[in-house]
């Protein structure tokens, strides 16, 4: 009995009208499409990408704050959490371990979030102005769970990491990420559902709130 | 999933008579259509994006064998295992084998329509493995005695919050709540330990990306992320037609998928998953599998229905379908409802098992107009009707009347006389009004609505009279 793979591919070849073996022309065509990958039609923006990003992020019910320098990040996180009554316990992605968290007064653990961590603080690989979306890449320094398990997610977004669209972000990723991350997560505001009566409810399984600190 | 489409007519009757269902359908009717329309303005040129999306999907189908090989090679290179299944049963066997290999007791599932096709939950249970649906809608259906979904992206669109409340109180043994926020919180708290405890996660896949060997999963709730991050095994179960070439193509398709589905510019979470966790990673599965399912897809390549394989499962066709929105998704009797379901069900399950579905359309072409990948759904339904006739699946009375009509239509003088007689009869029935309330010879036509009275003169007679007046 032939394997399911051979059977399926064999039937596809038959339907496509290809020889059973020897499809170098088609393979070359496929490699060509991939190596010459081109962006499709995309909306264009006049003006500041950061302003566009912030406007779209707010529309997705993220909250946004400015932060002058990276060194201010711990204190800004602490003051925002205090203003929201969200406590002091946070888990911080290793990528941000170099900041001076001790002075912030927060109860900080560096590492990956567990199911009961209330607040996760992460960086971001790029931020996408078109839709107000964070692009987070998993890795030893940036666990995917920190933006997923806690009820509150704070993301630190360097202003120079804001790019126009997904295509621009992918271009940077292709050039700089090796190995390619296990998970690339695009996050657009708090988790939500509209499954019951199409009524939008925040905090379905992921965070109830996403707070963005735009740095620089 | 067992097909029940052969009982379409009686299922429709029941649902039209179900006042609670009708009230629930009315509550959300047209909402997604309005949201979709509003969201299109944020694209400079929707038509150009749609044309590009159509082209991406169509071009892959032309070389699908090679694209699948390319995807397989890339996914394998990055540490995933790619398996193939000829049909749903084989897919179930593969998934159960994987579960046994990794000593899996509980599986958390993100939404996968292919798993509904395969009847995966029942197969897992029979093998002693506990499946837990984690999409809120799918979870509600699962705890309601495995009720099937009625919409491909909003599976419980047919239910009211009171019905969900009653169900939660009964199954969870908690106090009844009618606040949707509280109901959602209750499900979250029930499912959180499942995400943390399950040994395996099963997801579907919105797209497979040949460039990187990744699966892209689009969700709003975050359950897709949970299922593919927390358990130590991840299985992505998808149809073989889901491949797209590049990440840039993904970006294009993501401009059009959430807008067409719910009117969102982007869904909350888009996850691009590539292989198992890397050395040093704090999270992620240790094993990643793809199960690529044929299930009737390969046979559509190169034929009359190839365009159907472009479908990206957005649900826009059903959100705009006057028939779907009146009879609800369960009437269709299999996994996929609405216009796309009326095409896919007979193609995947057999023409003879879903005879009524291609007929259950007004061919108004709303679905064709809104389809983000330009699938000519009404044409495909018409083509299926033709196939039914060729296969001798239409009733003899219909075949006889068609033959009779064809005979008359080929004799213009006779046809014109027949039309004049019919007009006189219909105008007599209308009795001076512009509507006919009871059609004498075919009372079924006017059982639910009036029939418009015809003009005094047929188009042909008016045309002839004008030609005479113009002296031609």
Describe the structure.
- A 6-stranded parallel β-sheet of chain A has the order 1-12-7-4-2-3, with helices on both faces.
- In chain A, 48% of the residues are buried.
- Chain A has 5 helices and 12 strands.
- In chain A, strand 5 and strand 6 (133-137) form a beta hairpin.
- Chain A is α/β, with parallel strands linked by helices and 216 residues long.
- Chain A has one domain (49-215): Rossmann fold (3-Layer(aba) Sandwich), CATH 3.40.50.10420.
- The model of chain A has no long low-confidence stretch (mean pLDDT 95).
- In chain B, 50% of the residues are buried.
- Chain B is globular.
- The longest helix of chain B is centred in the C-terminal third of the chain and has 19 residues, at 412-430.
- The mean pLDDT of chain B is 95.
- In chain B, the strands form 3 sheets. A 6-stranded parallel β-sheet of chain B has the order 1-10-7-4-2-3, with helices on both faces. A 4-stranded mixed β-sheet of chain B has the order 8-5-6-9. Chain B has a two-stranded antiparallel sheet with strand order 11-12.
- Among the domains of chain B are: 43-298, 3-Layer(aba) Sandwich (Rossmann fold); 396-469, no CATH class.
- Chain B is α/β, with parallel strands linked by helices and 472 residues long.
- In chain B, a hairpin with a 4-residue loop joins strand 5 and strand 6 (214-219).
- Strand 9 (183-187) of chain A pairs antiparallel with strand 9 (269-273) of chain B, so a sheet runs across the interface.
């Amino acid at each position: 009995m032939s394997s399911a793979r051979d059977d399926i591919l064999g039937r596809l070849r038959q339907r496509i009208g290809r020889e059973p073996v020897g499809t170098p022309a088609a393979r070359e065509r496929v490699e060509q499409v991939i190596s010459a990958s081109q962006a499709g039609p995309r909306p264009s923006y006049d003006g500041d990408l950061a302003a566009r990003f912030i406007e779209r992020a707010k529309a997705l019910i993220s909250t946004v704050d400015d932060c002058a320098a990276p060194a201010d990040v711990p204190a800004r996180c602490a003051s925002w959490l205090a203003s929201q009554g969200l406590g002091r316990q946070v888990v911080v992605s290793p990528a941000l371990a170099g900041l001076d968290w001790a002075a912030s007064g927060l109860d900080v653990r560096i590492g990956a979030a567990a199911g009961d961590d209330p607040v996760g603080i992460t960086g971001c690989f790029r931020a996408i102005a078109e839709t107000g979306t964070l692009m987070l890449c998993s890795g030893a320094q940036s666990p995917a769970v920190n933006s997923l398990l806690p009820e509150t997610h704070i993301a630190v977004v360097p202003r120079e990491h804001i790019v126009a669209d997904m295509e621009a972000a992918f271009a940077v990723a292709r050039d700089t990420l090796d190995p390619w991350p296990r998970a690339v997560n695009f996050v657009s505001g708090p988790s939500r559902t509209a499954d019951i009566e199409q009524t939008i409810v925040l905090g379905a399984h992921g965070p109830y709130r996403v707070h963005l600190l735009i740095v620089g | 999933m067992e097909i029940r489409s052969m009982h379409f007519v009686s299922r429709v009757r029941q649902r039209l008579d179900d006042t609670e269902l009708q009230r629930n359908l009315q509550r959300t009717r047209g909402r997604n259509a309005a949201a979709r329309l509003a969201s299109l303005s944020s694209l400079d040129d929707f038509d150009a994006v749609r044309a590009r999306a159509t082209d991406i999907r169509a071009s892959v189908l032309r070389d699908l064998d090679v694209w699948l090989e390319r995807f397989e090679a890339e996914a394998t290179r990055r540490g995933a295992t790619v398996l193939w299944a000829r049909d749903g049963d084989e897919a179930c066997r593969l998934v159960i084998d994987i579960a046994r290999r990794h000593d899996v007791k509980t599986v958390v599932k993100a939404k996968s329509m292919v798993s509904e096709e395969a009847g995966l939950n029942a197969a897992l249970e029979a093998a002693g493995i506990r499946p837990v649906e984690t999409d809120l809608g799918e979870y509600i259906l699962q705890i309601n005695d495995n009720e099937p979904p009625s919409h491909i992206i909003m599976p419980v669109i047919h239910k009211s919050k009171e019905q969900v409340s009653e169900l939660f109180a009964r199954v969870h043994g908690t106090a009844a709540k009618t606040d949707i926020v509280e109901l959602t919180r209750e499900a979250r708290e029930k499912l959180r330990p499942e995400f943390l405890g399950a040994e395996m996660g099963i997801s579907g896949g919105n797209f497979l990306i040949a460039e990187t060997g990744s699966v892209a999963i689009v969700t709003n709730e975050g359950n897709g992320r949970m299922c593919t991050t927390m358990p130590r095994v991840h299985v992505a179960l998808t149809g073989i037609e889901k491949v797209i070439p590049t990440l840039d193509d993904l970006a294009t398709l993501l401009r059009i998928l959430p807008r067409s589905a719910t009117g969102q510019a982007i869904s909350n979470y888009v996850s691009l998953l590539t292989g198992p966790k890397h050395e040093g990673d704090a999270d992620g599965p240790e094993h990643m599998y793809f199960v690529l399912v044929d299930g009737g897809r390969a046979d559509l390549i190169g034929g009359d229905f190839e365009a159907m394989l472009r479908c990206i499962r957005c649900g826009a066709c059903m959100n705009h379908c006057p028939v779907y929105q009146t009879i609800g998704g369960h009437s269709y009797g299999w996994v996929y409802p609405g216009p796309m379901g009326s095409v896919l069900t007979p193609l995947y399950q057999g023409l003879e098992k879903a005879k009524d579905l291609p007929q259950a359309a007004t061919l108004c072409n709303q679905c064709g107009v809104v389809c983000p990948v330009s699938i000519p759904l009404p044409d495909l339904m018409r083509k299926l009707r033709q196939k039914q006739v060729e296969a001798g699946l239409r009733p003899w009375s219909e075949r006889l009347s068609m033959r009779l009509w064809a005979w008359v239509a080929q004799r213009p003088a006779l046809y014109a006389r027949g039309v004049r007689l019919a007009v006189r009869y219909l105008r007599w029935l209308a009795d001076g009004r512009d509507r006919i309330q009871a059609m004498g010879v075919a009372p079924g036509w006017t059982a639910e609505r009036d029939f418009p009275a015809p003009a005094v003169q047929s188009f042909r007679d008016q045309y002839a009279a004008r030609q005479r007046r113009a002296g031609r």
